[in-house]
């Protein structure tokens, strides 16, 4: 051929068709066509890999009960408090407690994700709120979770809470220490190179959560690449701790306008967050918390 590009335009199809005809004529092989999705599932079945779930939501009723807001963490930034505070506004609804406490963790947990979209929808089926939300702090630094959320709920609002990464890492260490008895000191992780943890998977995981998760830019840029910038809402931990009422008012107003441009916040009765927070009511436990700032400090 004097023109190499002509091979792709004219000759390649001819050559392939001749090959297929030869195979059908001189062999007992039965050639069939499969769509790409079935080919991938067949490959995974042959090599004992979990089947890819059908994540596309075709049922219109199911689309309506998918979360519009996902609080993605990261861990130890006050995401639990925000998840609880939003319950005060009746226009916001969320899932009940699960085996992962308040977190669904559907997109970051392969066992849950491979059960398909019906599993995810089941967490929110009994909700009638205008704006459904969920919180899973394991999503923030999970690259698979970012792509999976984009695939299933491309128009959702992502909430990221930022805290001083040093304080967040130290807080996460103490969080693990409360649950794991035989854990090395914080200095041990601070002075080690992560390559030393290859043989100790548990220590390597803790190290990554303490230090690598705190490299916020690395993960935020991935969220921005998958979602438009106006779909990502940032909250600062210090503001949430010191002035939760203002943070809640700003965020709920933004969220309502984001999902309904006709929503007139001035004509709606404002939610009295002060009544709940200043009166020391804890919506999570029906208990008394004398100061939400102190409570967040103790928890984080």
From TrEMBL:
<dbReference type="GO" id="GO:0005794">
    <property type="term" value="C:Golgi apparatus"/>
</dbReference>
<dbReference type="GO" id="GO:0015016">
    <property type="term" value="F:heparan sulfate N-sulfotransferase activity"/>
</dbReference>
<dbReference type="Pfam" id="PF00685">
    <property type="entry name" value="Sulfotransfer_1"/>
</dbReference>
<feature type="active site" description="For sulfotransferase activity">
    <location>
        <position position="76"/>
    </location>
</feature>
<dbReference type="GO" id="GO:0019213">
    <property type="term" value="F:deacetylase activity"/>
</dbReference>
<dbReference type="InterPro" id="IPR027417">
    <property type="entry name" value="P-loop_NTPase"/>
</dbReference>
<dbReference type="InterPro" id="IPR037359">
    <property type="entry name" value="NST/OST"/>
</dbReference>
<feature type="binding site">
    <location>
        <position position="171"/>
    </location>
    <ligand>
        <name>3'-phosphoadenylyl sulfate</name>
    </ligand>
</feature>
<protein>
    <recommendedName>
        <fullName>Sulfotransferase domain-containing protein</fullName>
    </recommendedName>
</protein>
<feature type="binding site">
    <location>
        <position position="163"/>
    </location>
    <ligand>
        <name>3'-phosphoadenylyl sulfate</name>
    </ligand>
</feature>
<dbReference type="InterPro" id="IPR000863">
    <property type="entry name" value="Sulfotransferase_dom"/>
</dbReference>
<feature type="domain" description="Sulfotransferase">
    <location>
        <begin position="67"/>
        <end position="276"/>
    </location>
</feature>
<keyword id="KW-0325">Glycoprotein</keyword>
<keyword id="KW-0808">Transferase</keyword>
């Amino acid at each position: 051929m004097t023109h190499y590009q002509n091979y792709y335009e004219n000759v390649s199809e001819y050559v392939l068709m001749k090959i297929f005809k030869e195979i059908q004529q001189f062999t007992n092989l039965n050639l069939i066509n499969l769509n790409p999705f079935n080919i991938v599932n067949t490959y995974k079945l042959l090599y004992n890999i979990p089947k890819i779930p059908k994540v596309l939501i075709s049922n219109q009723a199911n689309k309506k009960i998918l979360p519009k807001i996902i609080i993605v963490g990261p861990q130890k930034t006050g995401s639990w408090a925000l998840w609880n505070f939003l319950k005060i506004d009746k226009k916001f609804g969320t899932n009940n407690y699960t085996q992962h406490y308040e977190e669904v963790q559907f997109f970051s947990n392969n066992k849950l994700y491979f059960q398909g979209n019906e599993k995810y929808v089941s967490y929110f089926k009994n909700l009638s709120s205008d704006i459904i939300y969920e919180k899973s702090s394991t999503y923030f630094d999970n690259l698979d979770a970012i792509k999976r959320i984009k695939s299933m709920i491309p128009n959702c609002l992502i909430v990221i809470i930022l805290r001083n990464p040093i304080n967040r890492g130290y807080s996460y260490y103490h969080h693990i220490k409360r649950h794991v008895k035989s854990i090395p000191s914080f200095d041990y992780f601070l002075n080690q190179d992560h390559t030393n943890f290859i043989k100790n998977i548990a220590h390597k995981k803790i190290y990554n959560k303490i230090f690598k998760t705190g490299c916020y830019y690395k993960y935020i840029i991935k969220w921005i690449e998958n979602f438009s910038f106006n779909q990502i809402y940032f909250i600062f931990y210090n503001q949430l701790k010191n002035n939760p009422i203002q943070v809640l008012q700003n965020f709920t107003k933004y969220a309502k306008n984001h999902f309904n441009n006709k929503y007139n916040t001035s004509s709606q009765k404002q939610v009295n967050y002060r009544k709940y927070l200043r009166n020391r009511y804890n919506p999570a436990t029906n208990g008394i918390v004398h100061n939400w700032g102190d409570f967040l400090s103790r928890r984080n």
